[in-house]
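Structure ticket #2291
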Amino acid sequence: MKHRLPMLEERGIAEAALLRLEQTKTFERDLLTRTPVTCHKGCHHCCQHPVMMSILEGISLQRWLADHRMWSTALKAKFEAHHAKVYGLELGLWLISEIPCPLLEASKGVCTAYEGRPSSCRLTFSTGDAYLCHPHRLVDAQSIVPRREAIGQIVDQESKILKRTKQKLAYLPLSTAVLIGERINNGELSLRDYAQEVLRMDLDRGT
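Resolution: structure written out below.
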């Protein structure tokens, strides 16, 4: 994929990606020094949890999918269907609605983009009974490792990066951020105009 954004924006996207990776690796390393996790391949209850991300991460994830030849017409359709279901949906309702991530291969219970998965997913761990991670049982779960501080640090970092180009940080559903990211990567929309595009989507949803 050819990246044609202005140098300052490209630098910010790369910097944000590196910061997210460093933060999630530190979180995982510190966690594993304290306690074993019970997450295992095939368990995918958390793949039905709400996943939000910044436009910077949406751009990076869409590039990752394209660079790995995964961004197909079929996958984009899954993202569009997911966006139609979750955009504007209250997070609690999203959670209990059991809406699978468009990257989930449900038959195998695995993420098709595991190596490039979102930072929110990289920060999600269970140290107890993974059965309780299911959206309908999560209310009673005590085993999901708190990650608010780590997410907060990522939010602060990305907010500072976007501020350099006079943009404000907004967290969007996974599918929405990736679909807008594709338009930015393709030159159909500028990063500077993404906030106006989100506003337009909000107005359309209200009509």
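Closing remark: The chain has eight helices and four strands.
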